[in-house]
Amino acid sequence: MEKFIIKGGKKLNGSLSIVGSKNVALKVLVAACLTSEEIIVENVPLISDFLIMADIIKYLGGEVRFKDHTVFVRLKEISSDRISLDRAAEIRTSYMFLAPLLARSGRAIIPNPGGCRIGARPIDRIIDGLKKMGVGVKYDSKDGFFHAIAPNGLRGTTYSFSKNTHTGTETMILAAVMAKGRTILNNAAQEPEIDELIGLLSRMGAKIVRKKSRTIVIDGVSGLHGARFIIAPDRNEVVTFAVGAIITEGDVFIKNITTRGLEEFLEMLDRVGAGYEEKEGGIRFYYKGQLKAADITTSFYPGFMTDWQGPWAVLMTKASGMSTIHETVYENRFTYAEELKKLGGHIELFNPKVKNPDKVYNFNTKDDRGFFHGLRIIGPVKLHNGVVMISDLRAGATLVLAALAAKGESVLFGIEHLDRGYERLDKRLKSIGANIKRESEG
Q1: Which residue of the set 6, 64, 116, 377 is catalytic?
Q2: Domain chopping of the chain, boundaries
């Protein structure tokens, strides 16, 4: 087991670049499997989740080569229609291979997906959509696999998502690009990362148009070809380093980014009195004085992103007054709360009063299982050192930020979760002044 040892209280100062979006990188690997020709993707993040997805492609018979932050992918012929159980158990997006396997071979055997346990995150919305495209799907509880077949090929359909689903929208797009006829997706998610995926598919020869903000029309084509694509910077990384600059009373310039996709975050920085400045070639984030408390409610795009609420909670420990966070996207997103208390956070879990839970919450409320969906933070407090355990990717970023701002030396276990989504986080933080090192236990 590896751990981070962080001596807090150091101001983060300097500049750095952001690697490509994790949420795009994983999906473009799936998209690459829709063609027998080579797909070249630049600015890929060298994170463990990406490497696992690459291994799955190799298991299916594909070739994956890396040159620095560029990946070359080619699945000329599919040699297996079954995803490895051990690989799939490590990453949730493994189930998205349903789309290229069904499109190219008419058959897919996919294990129940793994990944961070931040909620039930059922794939029933995707399965329901695929069934309307002519797919027969059965889940075998004995082997833990979904068995899917499309004996007559995929066919276009009109499908409306009951609730917002990012990966559900993407999976249906991937399935529809080579289906027979037209597919119309209503109440489709509209995150910028989805439009990036659409951009790659269009370069590959797909016919996709977003008619309205939440309606996507796909006309199936007989085949796709090779393409080259560059992934945009990861919005979650931007927020992590931005909060790091402000919480440590530092000044960090993030290169080659724009405000697109960050509007809600930047609006909240204005509201609480944090500093940021758009400049040529990027955005500067800095501390400019006492922060004010504020309330946020997470939502799907264009709302305040659920992945941002953990870092925001740390930021609010420095604000004057009581702040609240209402999490509406996932039912179990406050796994960092008890660990943050160990570092001196004055926080309390609670359940906001909600008149219509099914309408307010994006998760299936029947899967709630008594989790808390609200967090109160009272500040300002002086965070102190401690020993904490990371339970998932975004919780890990949250606790790293808290340790950077805390006085004294903290030890963070479970950093393998961070490696799933942040490339060389310790080295990049060190480059802007953090006192952080990685050590192995035993």
Answers
A1: 116
A2: 2-18+233-440, 22-230
CATH H superfamily, domain 2-18+233-440: Enolpyruvate transferase domain (3.65.10.10)
| CB-CB neighbours of 23 under 10 Å | 23
**Top-level class of domain 22-230:** alpha beta
Fold equal for 2-18+233-440 and 22-230 = yes
Per-residue pLDDT at 383: 98
Task: Give the SS3 label for residue 170.
Answer: helix
Tell me whether residue 116 is one of the annotated catalytic residues: yes
Q: What is the pTM of this model?
A: 0.94
Model pLDDT, residue 17: 96
Count of Cβ atoms closer than 10 Å to residue 212 Cβ: 10
Listing DSSP states for 137-159 in one string gives EEEETTTTEEEEE-TT--B--EE
183 touches 159 (CB < 8 A)? yes
Of 142 and 258, more confident: 258
Classify 328 as helix, strand or coil. coil
